Amino acid sequence: MAQGRGSARSSLVVGVAILCLLAIIQPSLAAYYNVGNGGGWTFNVNNWPRGKSFRAGDILVFNYARNLHNVVPVNSRGFASCSAPRGVKPYQSGKDRIRLKKGVNYFICSFPGHCQGGAGGWTFNVNTWTNGKSFKAGDVLAFNYDKTTHNVVLVNKRGYDSCTSPKGAKAYQTGKDRIKLAKGQNYFICSLPGHCQGGVKIAISAA
């Protein structure tokens, strides 16, 4: 599939804003773009349009796991606020094809927390936060987050690797959770769809 002609705009975590130039072209001449390239429509795809230019009539291909994401066309206000207008039907096939209109086209994922991302705290790509740190049993982790977009679940290594919660596992969801580390390996994930896969997970070894 064609991979680009050069210009775009930025966005948030699972969202893109694309500026289309020129007039609508014939379908036979439309370029196809795989959003996110090989990684597909997922977290941190916001920089994907850089270095590309698009024309009205070009087709965006959104590839993703349908149980983890969706695609919602929004306006500039919905893009900035990470909210979908009432009545807008999300694409959710996992292999969506959307033709670009002339002007700026905005797309977000409407799953809780996916568009917002967040700055700091228990959020996406926090899995590298433990690098260079040492911990002892009895140390207390403070999980600060928006309770409408995340939770915290204590899991075992299998649950951590597969991003699944054991049956009966307690989900912390106050937004200001305090959890004392046990000796040995401690594994934590967010169990909301797609969040663990997006790096909302940490593994800590406590001496």
From TrEMBL:
Residues 31-116, 112-207 form the Phytocyanin domain. It holds the Pfam family Cu_bind_like. GO terms for cellular component: plasma membrane. Residues 1-30 form the signal peptide. The keyword Metal-binding applies. It comes from the Eukaryota. Keywords: Copper, Disulfide bond, Metal-binding, Signal. GO terms for molecular function: electron transfer activity; metal ion binding. CDD domains: Plantacyanin. This is Basic blue protein. It comes from Chenopodium quinoa.
